[in-house]
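Input record, target 12 of the design panel.
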């Protein structure tokens, strides 16, 4: 687990809400505080979609950020910035499997509950906290370390400036 503070909030928010920077991630949940409080549950409501539509959706219980980003943007756009924003992203199973393989980690994909990125915007500051959830207890932190390195690398590739807390 790492905690990062984004040093250029407006650039980060633009990359989060307007650009495709985070579109490869899945949305677990979002809490938006503007004139009202909004909560988005990122889980896919499978009963809403036809069988054909379900095949086109990500192979996950969560919807992808690319689908939800316009809705979140519409909730917060305007003259005033939100008083708070919390987004929890998840890596897809495919991305987790690739991370495990690339880093030669001795861990079965089925024992991973999820890899999460918590984005918290409050008082014109953005904090990022990573999280690893495993279905079984282990003292091995190699997946957590690989995930943290992956996030740092992703931020550097996207030119997102940060300091580590």
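The sequence produced for target 12 reads:
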């Amino acid at each position: 687990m790492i905690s990062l503070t984004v040093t250029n909030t407006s650039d980060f928010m633009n990359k989060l809400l307007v650009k495709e920077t985070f579109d490869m991630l899945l949305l677990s949940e979002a809490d938006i505080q503007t004139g009202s409080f909004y909560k988005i549950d990122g889980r896919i409501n499978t009963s809403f979609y036809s069988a054909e539509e379900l095949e086109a959706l990500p192979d996950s219980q969560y919807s992808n950020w690319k689908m939800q980003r316009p809705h979140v943007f519409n909730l917060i756009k305007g003259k005033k910035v939100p008083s708070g924003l919390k987004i929890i992203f998840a890596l897809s199973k495919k991305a987790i499997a690739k991370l495990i393989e690339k880093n030669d980690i001795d861990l079965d994909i089925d024992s991973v509950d999820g890899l999460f990125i918590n984005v918290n915007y409050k008082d014109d500051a953005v904090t990022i906290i990573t999280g690893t959830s495993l279905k079984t207890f282990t003292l091995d932190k190699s997946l957590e370390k690989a995930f943290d390195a992956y996030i740092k690398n992703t931020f550097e590739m996207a030119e997102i400036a940060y300091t580590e807390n």
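Strands lie at 3-6, 26-33, 37-41, 63-64, 84-90, 112-122, 125-134, 162-164.
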